[in-house]
Design a protein that fits this description.
The complex is a heterotrimer of chains A (1011), B (222) and C (142).
Chain A (H helix, E strand, L loop, with lengths): L11 E5 L3 H12 L3 E6 L22 H13 L3 E5 L1 E9 L2 E8 L14 H5 L41 H5 L12 E7 L1 E4 L3 E3 L6 H4 L7 E3 H8 L20 E8 L16 H15 L5 E6 L9 H11 L3 E13 L4 E8 L4 E6 L1 E6 L1 E3 L3 H8 L24 E3 L9 H17 L26 E6 L1 H5 L5 H9 L4 E7 L6 H12 L4 E5 L3 H14 L7 E4 L2 H5 L6 H20 L7 E4 L4 E4 L3 H10 L6 E4 L22 H13 L3 E4 L2 E9 L2 E8 L4 E7 L1 E4 L4 E2 L13 E3 H10 L8 E5 L16 H15 L4 E6 L8 H10 L3 E4 L7 E5 L2 E8 L4 E5 L3 E4 L3 E2 L2 H11 L26 E3 L9 H19 L3 E4 L5 E2 L9 H5 L6 E2 L5 E2 L10 H5 L5 E2 L5 H11 L5
Parallel strand pairs in A: 1-2, 1-7, 2-3, 7-17, 9-15, 10-11, 10-15, 11-12, 18-19, 18-20, 20-21, 23-24, 23-29, 24-25, 29-40, 31-38, 32-33, 32-38, 33-34
Antiparallel strand pairs in A: 4-5, 5-6, 8-16, 12-13, 13-14, 22-41, 26-27, 27-28, 30-39, 35-36, 36-37, 42-45, 43-44
Helix pairs in contact in A: 1-2, 1-10, 1-23, 6-7, 10-23, 12-16, 13-14, 16-26, 17-18, 17-23, 19-20, 20-21
Chain B lengths: L1 E5 L2 H8 L4 E7 L2 H4 L5 H17 L5 E7 L5 H4 L11 E4 L3 H10 L5 E3 L1 E11 L2 E6 L15 H4 L16 E2 L2 E5 L1 H12 L2 H5 L26
Parallel strand pairs in B: 2-3, 2-4, 4-5
Antiparallel strand pairs in B: 1-6, 6-7, 8-9
Chain C lengths: L7 E6 L3 H10 L8 E6 L7 H9 L4 E6 L10 H18 L7 E5 L5 H18 L3 H9 L1
Parallel strand pairs in C: 1-2, 1-3, 3-4
Helix pairs in contact in C: 1-4
Classes of the chains: A alpha/beta (1011), B alpha/beta (222), C alpha/beta (142).
């Protein structure tokens, strides 16, 4: 997979694109001890995600989840975020690249800008009203409220250098003479995550009316309409006349699945889910009686459990679904409404009046994709997306350059994140063996202040910026100096680089300060910086408290300076009261065993093993059967007609040849204990089932699924009836003969029904694959595919089109009138209803092929869940930590999952998830020791009544009653939410930083003088 | 475990009305586990009392203390050093704890702050249910581990009565018929023959009917 | 009573509401100066006692501000907080302080405007209810 070890000397990766995929790849790599240069063409990180108000299927606002990662990616010591920067050239080879990058001027000094917005307000061109999201092109542009970096930028093409912004900028951050800067970076590998673009409906204005009628919006524009941070401030109004819309239509496949000029032939994969989410959210939050209608050709909710979301939208939430081909959107002068015409399922014309039309537009490759590919020296595949391969899904044609996210094709967030972790894993393999991270070692020893009175230093940071002519600094400083325990008050200027922090460290030493209060910024944005600074000065990080007198005082009370000043005094007093009682939080260092256990030797498991091998310690690959390969052993070829066996054999060979992988076939996992970094897994191995224990630090579960054994349609009773896999085998044998004369395939057998409500995800593709193969072997064969929705993501839609062109007949059936199969002697008959002809047809098939899903290997998965303390989701598949943002993590720290144990997976998905799980595991493995310094709940055993309340209420099941009869909480696992402490009836549990006495002191200080 | 619930605030205010300074005493045993009178509930009630009395313009000084187990005289002794300073002791322990403290400090009013409820177990976090009536003569071995005294509304020994319908008791659809549960369990255990044995009328002398009970272990009580 | 400016203590979850308050600042919105925020790691850490203590120390109202329902970073801390707030409300009604003085609210990290709006509304409502009744009692007792 890589060059010789000796050539791998670099520890740096270049990541192109600061969307969710780029951020994820960067953050994974940084956590694994790598140096990352994160390039983003735009002024801030974020990509598409910040433009979405809500994300399916949880309907959460994932900015809460993204922004800490973005903060970390932007703030982590080993990630250098480089906004407004692009790659100019890439020379060299994997392991040793030289990248030239060009940074455009922002005209605003990021280190000084505090994103106060004064420049925005002052800019005299009327065009400069900042509406976050929609108006991304305003001259000074902060993409969204939590942008990273927290700074505005100026668009010189709109600026007339009037200088108004310079006058109002308190921190003097504006510099209209900034020049572009070129730099040369040495990196070992490159991750391309430059994303895609929303399809522009302009070429189809004639039909959709977008651009002509203000009430025709794209899906992303509609997101903004619903967003509290959007142009209407969260009010639900249609653009033309501000009326509250009551009838909204979503038009699916706008610009997708079409051969029309200006459109895309492929399926954009995620638009069905986006539209459903928008419909549900609009109904739930703005208009209960909303007539929400989705006009679609096939509903394609294709991610894990997305089918359930669709069923819920349809059956429980009252979203209307109309199967049709949308035709034209017109404007009705008399009513001001829109009229949409369409051709329905039976071929007749329909019309409907709507208040608002949302186009479920697709995504396409970035407009500069070709330019970028040329710079990178990689090939593009169809539709200008990066060319990748079924079994090398995140690799490009140039070794050392990997891709993830929408650069590879339209992608939902879990897909992007999975690819990002996979690309990170591949990119890491081109680098030198990771350095062990021992960050505590570079720091001075912590001073011991036990028994000493508090000596508190209060530092006012960047007064110039904070005050903003609101807070009277002198009053606040005088009041602060009088507080009990305060020995030193000083102003710091952080805006001029690291000098401010150096001054802080110096003052701590000079004045023997043992507690620090920093007044100025929010702890959310600056807490980490100051905690590290005091740690460098020899103080435990817990000896810090922040007074947020900027965001939560000066900036919100600008109209009342007197009250703002009083409140600043109060907030500082509160922080001083809190820090007075601070106790050091010991940082916990755990030795970390770099070895890994991978359970399951299919494509996902083998990929995970290869991803880890050589980057950490040893990998134990545990497989219950005698052979590696899993379900893929039964596959003959891919959708695009390439044979699977040679590539699979190559993968198996690589695994067998890798000296860092020990393969344990005929082996079962029987027990598992310990915690991340020091797991012990018991296995029974070989024909004799000998028991053996393996010590390791991380675990990856890739135990796969099993094929549903149909009971429907005479399966097992007539040799003509077979599954798609059996048909595939027949085709591979080349001995199909007469059986291929008239083939009827029935989709959704054993899925999307009451027993198994989930979608098999990949069976449609198998059917099209086999249909094409039949046509290839016997061009005059008659092939019928009886389907409910053809679910053909991305370019597999092209194969679907090809199949229709080659004469494969696709006939839709509805679940309440499924095809009927009867047999009379040797004659078999399939009867089904054709919706267009509106009559029943009868076919005598030579073969009847059932498309059956992969289903959870119930008992095995159940046992697995028991052993690893995990949960099963709908359909019995393993439940991941978070379906959106942590798709291959499990809730158990150090345990990851990949492949069809999570959900039915294609080869490419299994391979990607395997690599992704390895990439996630590397973030832990590379740390030779695990240093934990976040506050974790502590139990006072003397007080504990062993009442079990903490055990029952911990969201992660971490506390347990130990052998001494009191509750114990593993500091390596606790996440510090404090629920146990809040519930403990004996006040035996305390969360450092939020102890009862400390909270009381804060409350008292906050309310001093009120009574 | 003994379960209890805090008394209604109105009653509590009435009972402390005469006092200006009280010691609120919790117990770290059963009442902690059932969230009625542990350290945290003591702090909550103390806060409520201070506020309520302040509102009335008659401030009440409330000091807090929680004993390991109020129903043991040695633990009750821990109050001795401070108890003189107070107008009353308000106990958040069960009736046993209240009486132990009252017996030790006979010159001082000792007021109960909780209503002692029953002997029960926790069905899940925040839900407790009666399981034992302390009758002094356990028959659980005959009834599949389900007590007909504590869990049957009528405490009948040879049930069910005619009020049992679809597995529920006639007093409320939320109450399971104990005898239905017993029957189901006996079937599960393959012990249905126990059901057909008629149980003799219970001798209630071992319960409260024989007057206050004591247990004396001669080998220990020396 | 019209010049009464209520003091409202907000226990704000670090992941959502506290960030939303920061965002409100960055958006240059405003809300009454009597609104004072204490940071907690999750509203699941907010004990009923904290709310009681805030009122006992003179706050006129208390707001517990957590993540949107279903969005808790720690799964369900915000639901626990909501249930505890209900319990405290009952107790406050019982002791004559008024359960209405305490509220559970949910905002996401990006909803700066919503935070400012909620803070303003709640403050207004408390203003209409008048000062924490223990203040009057404290004066009378003094």
């Amino acid at each position: 997979m890589n060059q010789e070890n000796s050539q791998r000397t670099s520890n740096s990766v270049l990541v192109l694109g600061g969307g969710i995929a780029g951020i994820k790849a960067s953050y994974d790599l940084a956590e694994a001890g790598r140096q990352v240069y994160l390039l983003e063409k735009k002024p801030a990180l974020g990509g598409f995600l910040p433009l979405l108000d809500r994300q399916f299927p949880t309907n959460d606002c994932n900015i809460c989840y993204l922004s800490p990662d973005a903060d970390k990616a932007g703030g982590a010591r080993t990630v250098q975020a480089m906004p407004l920067t692009k790659l100019v050239s890439l020379e060299g080879q994997a392991g040793d690249f030289n990248a030239k990058v060009l940074t455009s001027p922002r005209f605003i000094n990021v280190d000084r800008c505090n994103a106060c917005g004064a420049c925005l307000a002052a800019c005299p061109q009327g065009a400069i009203s900042f509406t976050p999201g929609l108006d991304t092109n305003s001259p000074t542009c902060l993409r969204y409220p939590q942008a990273t970096p927290q700074a505005f930028a100026i668009d010189m093409s709109k600026c007339d250098r009037c200088g108004e912004c310079i006058k109002v900028c308190a921190p003097e951050a504006i510099d209209l003479d900034q020049k572009e800067v070129e730099q040369s970076l040495e990196v070992g590998s490159v991750v391309l995550a430059s994303g895609g673009e929303l399809w522009d409906p302009a070429p189809m204005e004639e039909w959709y009316g977008h651009g002509r009628f203000p009430d025709v919006l794209t899906s992303l524009e509609f997101e903004q309409l619903m967003s509290a941070a959007g142009p209407t401030g969260g009010k639900f109004q249609r653009p033309s006349d501000g009326r509250h819309p009551k009838r909204i239509g979503w038009i699916q496949c706008a610009g997708s699945r079409t051969t029309k000029e200006g459109g895309n032939s492929y399926c954009s994969s995620i638009c069905c889910m986006i539209s459903m989410k928008e419909a549900i959210w609009a109904m739930e939050h703005f208009e209960k009686d909303l007539e929400a209608t989705v006009f679609f050709m096939d509903m394609r909710p294709m991610g894990k459990d997305y089918e359930l979301y669709y069923q819920r939208a349809k059956n429980e939430l009252g979203v209307n679904f109309v199967r049709c081909r949308p035709h034209t959107v017109d404007y009705k002068e008399e009513t001001g409404d829109l009229r949409m015409s369409y051709v329905d399922d039976h071929g007749s014309l329909g019309e409907v009046d709507l208040d608002l039309v949302v186009l479920g537009v697709g995504f396409c490759a970035a407009s500069d994709a070709q330019e970028q590919a040329a710079v990178l020296g990689i090939e593009l595949g169809s539709h200008h997306f990066v060319k990748a391969d079924e079994l090398a899904p995140v690799s490009t044609t140039r070794p050392g350059v990997y891709a993830c996210g929408m650069a590879l094709g339209p992608q939902d967030i879990p897909g992007s994140l999975t690819q990002a972790s996979a690309a990170g894993c591949m990119a890491s393999a081109d680098l030198a063996a990771p350095r062990a991270l021992r960050r505590e070692d570079d720091l001075p020893k912590e001073k011991d202040f036990s028994g000493q009175d508090p000596r508190i230093g209060v530092f006012f940071v960047d007064w110039g910026r904070v005050v903003q002519e609101v807070v009277d600094s002198k009053t606040v400083e005088e009041a602060t100096a009088k507080l009990d325990g305060v020995v030193h008050v000083e102003r710091l200027e952080l805006s001029y680089g690291q000098d401010g922090l150096a001054a802080l460290e110096k003052a701590i030493g000079e004045h023997k300060i043992n507690r620090v209060v920093v007044a100025g910024y929010s702890p959310r944005t600056h807490g980490r910086i100051f905690a590290e600074a005091i740690r460098k000065a020899g103080l435990n990080r817990a000896y810090l408290e922040m007074a947020n007198i900027r965001e939560q005082d000066a900036l919100v009370h600008h109209d009342d300076p007197k009250a703002a000043t009083d409140k600043a005094v109060t907030l500082v007093r509160t922080a001083v009261a809190g820090v007075r009682q601070a106790k050091p939080t010991p940082s916990l260092t755990l030795p970390f065993n770099p070895d890994a256990v991978v359970v399951g030797g299919g494509v996902a498991g083998m990929s995970a093993a290869l991803g880890l091998a050589g980057q950490g310690g040893k990998v134990y690959l545990v497989e219950r059967s005698r052979e590696l390969g899993g379900l893929a052993n039964q596959l003959a070829r891919t959708l695009d007609g390439r044979p699977v066996a040679p590539e699979l054999a190559e993968l198996v060979e690589k695994v067998k040849a890798n000296p860092n992988i020990e393969i344990l076939t005929d082996t079962l996992v029987v027990d598992h204990k310990g915690q991340v970094g020091s797991f012990i897994t018991g296995v029974q191995t070989g024909p004799g089932m000998f028991y053996r224990q393996i010590n390791h630090g991380v675990t990856i579960l890739a135990t796969g699924a099993r094929r549903y054994e149909p009971t429907e349609y005479l399966y097992g009773q007539d040799p003509k009836v077979m599954t798609q896999l059996e048909m595939e085998k027949l085709l591979a044998s080349g001995e199909g003969g007469d059986a291929l004369d008239t083939v009827v395939m029935i989709q959704c057998v054993g899925s999307r029904n009451d027993d198994n409500p989930t979608c098999g995800r990949i069976c449609c593709r198998s059917a099209v694959k086999n249909a094409l193969w039949i046509k290839e072997q016997k061009p005059d064969a008659q092939v019928f595919v009886l389907y409910r929705d053809m679910r053909m993501p991305f370019t597999s839609e092209d194969a679907y089109r090809q199949a229709r062109e080659e004469g494969v007949l696709f006939v839709r059936y509805s679940p309440d009138a499924p095809p009927r199969v009867s047999k009379d002697g040797d004659t078999m008959e399939v009867i089904f209803k054709d919706h267009i002809l509106d009559r029943e047809l009868s076919v005598e098939p030579s073969a009847l092929v059932l498309s059956v899903p992969q289903i959870a290997a119930d008992e095995d998965t159940e046992e697995l869940c028991e052993i690893f303390r995990l949960q099963q989701g709908p359909g019995g598949f393993l439940l991941e930590d978070h379906p959106k943002v942590k798709p291959v993590d499990t809730p158990a720290p150090g345990v990851f999952a990949a492949g069809s144990v999570l959900a039915p997976a294609s080869l490419a998905e299994a391979r990607t998830q395997g690599l992704a799980a390895a990439g996630r595991a590397l973030t832990m493995v590379s740390q030779m020791s695990l240093v934990l310094d976040t506050p974790v709940a502590k139990v006072n055993g003397d007080r504990c009544a062993a009442c079990l309340i903490c055990v029952r209420t911990c969201p992660y099941g971490i506390p347990y009653i130990n052998a001494d009869g009191y509750s114990e909480i593993d500091p390596a696992q606790c996440l510090g939410c404090g629920v146990c402490a809040a519930e403990c009836p004996a006040q035996a549990i305390q969360l450092p930083g939020y102890e009862d006495d400390r909270m009381l002191s804060r409350t008292e200080a906050l309310l001093e003088g009120v009574l | 475990m003994i379960t209890a619930e805090r008394k209604p605030m109105e009653e509590i205010f009435r009972s402390v009305e005469p006092f200006g300074k009280i010691l609120l005493v919790g117990c770290n045993e059963c009442v902690t586990v059932c969230h009625a009178g542990g350290r945290k509930e003591v702090a909550m009630l103390a806060s409520a009392l201070r506020m309520g009395r302040l509102k009335q313009g008659a401030p009440l000084t409330v000091d807090e203390m929680t004993l390991e187990r109020q129903c043991d005289p040695e633990y009750a002794e821990e109050l001795a050093l401070v108890v003189d300073q107070y107008d009353a002791v308000c106990s958040m322990a069960c009736g046993c704890g209240v009486q132990t403290v009252a017996e030790r400090y006979q010159g001082l009013p000792v007021m109960p702050m909780v209503n002692t409820a029953f002997m029960g177990s926790s069905e899940k976090n925040g839900v407790w249910a009666e399981r034992c009536a302390g009758c002094g003569n356990c028959v659980l071995g005959m009834t599949g581990g389900i007590c007909p005294i504590a869990r049957c509304s009528k405490r009948i020994f040879n049930g069910p009565c005619g009020g049992s319908s679809k597995g529920k008791c006639e007093i409320s659809p939320d109450v399971d018929c104990a005898w239905q549960l017993i029957w189901d369990r006996l079937k599960q255990l393959g012990q249905t023959e126990l059901y057909s044995q008629i149980m003799a009328p219970k001798d209630w002398r071992s319960a409260r009917d024989g007057g206050p009970r004591r247990i004396v272990r001669e080998d220990m009580a020396i | 009573m019209s010049d009464f400016e209520p003091v409202v203590v907000v226990f704000a979850c670090d992941y959502c509401a506290y960030t939303a308050a920061d965002v409100a600042g960055r958006m240059n919105l405003s809300y009454p100066t009597g609104v004072r925020i204490l940071r907690v790691p999750c509203t699941g850490k907010v004990e009923p006692l904290y709310i009681m203590q805030a009122l006992q120390k003179g706050a006129d109202g208390v707001m517990v501000a957590g993540c949107l329902v279903g969005d808790c970073h720690f799964k369900n801390g915000n639901l626990r907080a909501a249930a505890r707030v209900k319990r405290v409300q009952t107790m406050l009604d019982d002791i004559g302080i008024g359960g209405e003085r305490v509220a559970m609210v949910n905002v996401s990290a990006g909803q700066g405007a919503k935070f400012a709006e909620i803070a303003t509304e709640f403050s207004k409502k408390i203003g209409e209810m008048g000062p924490n009744p223990i203040k009057q009692g404290a004066k009378a007792a003094a």
